[in-house]
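Try this one yourself first.
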């Protein structure tokens, strides 16, 4: 019988309170909100605040070796009963899901360049199918591999990617010890040996994987034998509101803001978020901002704020672009594409958003409106800024509702006003031209739509920013 995720987390916490502490834990699943909440409570119970800095290590599994992880585990606690090592996204749990596009891997490696040169070089070496030593030597195999990956990416590399490949040999030469990819992967056997050996009495290793883990994964099975393996899935709907765990969580969360929610409104919230607690949490924050002093949240509030799945995903893309958040924009883009939406409607939505930003920019310049930032609440924006603008400019902009920002939801305009100063008018126009170029490529070339859109988002968020 499948356990309720809440029951699982409560059991773990109760066991810790009873001093029944496992040497290793695996917290995984799609319900990231519950994972983060459980981890926080575990750390609060295991480590006193005054000694936490000495006894807690939080490591990125994609950027550290197994030997580094185990070296942290082998340390003795200081002024505490326990030393805790948290490893996020240990790659061996997801080895069967390596589906990232070549461009995504390259972009991620470029982000690691200033933080972890070894990880940067090894990721590219794995992608190209060569060794890091061959990169350091600028070996002909490196040149051939670049030609092959260029062909895969449509025959053309952007300027920043080309210059990255040019400086990679120099980066690789800074690495003291070069290992081939196979030996790097086989280092995970060290972790299996550790799990099957004599585990430490005063250290706790916690793996956190935000996503599904196959229960036949050898590491997951090994952890299940010696520790705790907990998979947090999306909340399943209860037979009634009183038996619905998601309803209880939403009521408790809203109560902290002195708010209540009607049953119909909750049903709408569940439908529009799919029951994903992370999405629910984000939606609640938007709703609180939206309703202002209103105490009871109704069905109409949910419909106004929480969009349907595809639209909500596209809104997240455009909102992240407005804030120049490359990481969040690309993350939301991948989620929307993986949900089955064709790239062309996504491109059209980005273009429309940029047109709205240009309209807002021109209105602000015309009226001399000061930036609102995040200090103005939504109800005040609606009454003091949006409604007067509708009366003055509503008929001067395009007549179509889909092309006139003042005929769309005030909340969309509110979000654009908050971040409008992150782009100049010239940058918005340049970004719109880039979108239109990609739209043509999507319709006339065989290039991967996902790759073209990722490159587009990266260029809009980062490239123009460097020129400011």
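Now uncover the answer:
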């Amino acid at each position: 019988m499948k356990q309720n995720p809440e029951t699982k987390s409560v059991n773990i916490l109760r066991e810790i309170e009873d001093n029944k502490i496992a040497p290793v834990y695996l917290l995984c699943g799609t319900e990231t909100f519950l994972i983060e909440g459980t981890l926080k409570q575990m750390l609060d119970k295991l480590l006193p605040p005054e000694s936490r800095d000495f006894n807690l290590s939080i490591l990125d599994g994609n950027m550290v070796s197994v030997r580094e992880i185990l070296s942290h585990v082998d340390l003795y606690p200081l002024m505490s009963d326990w030393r805790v090592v948290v490893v996020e996204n240990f790659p061996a749990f997801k080895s069967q899901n390596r589906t990232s596009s070549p461009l995504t891997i390259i972009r991620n490696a470029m982000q690691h360049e200033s933080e972890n040169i070894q990880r940067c070089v090894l990721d590219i070496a794995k992608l190209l199918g060569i060794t890091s030593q061959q990169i350091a030597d600028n070996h002909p195999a490196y040149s051939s591999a670049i030609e092959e990956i260029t062909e895969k990416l449509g025959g053309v590399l952007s300027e920043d990617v080309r210059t990255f490949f040019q400086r990679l040999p120099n980066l690789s030469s800074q690495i003291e010890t070069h290992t081939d990819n196979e030996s790097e992967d086989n280092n995970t056997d060290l972790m299996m040996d550790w799990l099957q050996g004599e585990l430490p009495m005063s250290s706790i290793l916690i793996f956190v994987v935000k996503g599904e883990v196959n229960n036949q994964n050898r590491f997951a099975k090994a952890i299940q034998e010696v520790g705790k393996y907990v998979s947090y899935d999306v909340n399943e709907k209860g037979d009634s509101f009183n038996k619905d765990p998601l309803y209880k969580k939403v009521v408790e969360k809203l109560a902290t803001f002195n708010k209540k929610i009607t049953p119909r409104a909750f049903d709408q919230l569940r439908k529009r978020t799919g029951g994903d607690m992370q999405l629910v949490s984000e939606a609640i924050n938007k709703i609180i901002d939206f309703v202002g002093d209103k105490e009871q949240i109704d069905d109409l509030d949910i419909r106004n704020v929480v969009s349907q799945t595809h639209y909500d995903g596209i809104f997240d893309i455009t909102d992240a672009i407005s804030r120049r958040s490359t990481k969040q924009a690309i993350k939301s883009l991948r989620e929307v594409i993986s949900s089955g939406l064709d790239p062309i409607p996504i491109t059209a939505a980005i273009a429309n958003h940029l047109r709205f930003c240009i309209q807002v920019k021109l209105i602000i310049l015309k009226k001399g409106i000061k930036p609102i930032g995040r200090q103005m609440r939504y109800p005040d924006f609606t009454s003091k800024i949006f409604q007067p603008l509708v009366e003055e400019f509503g008929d001067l902009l395009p007549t179509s509702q889909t092309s006139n920002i003042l005929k769309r939801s005030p909340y969309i305009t509110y979000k654009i006003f908050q971040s409008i100063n992150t782009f100049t008018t010239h940058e918005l126009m340049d970004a719109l031209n880039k979108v239109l170029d990609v739209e043509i490529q999507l319709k006339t070339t065989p290039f991967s739509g996902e790759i073209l859109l990722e490159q587009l988002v990266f260029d809009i968020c980062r490239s123009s920013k460097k020129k400011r």
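Discussion: The longest helix spans residues 343-367. The first strand starts at residue 24 and ends at 29.
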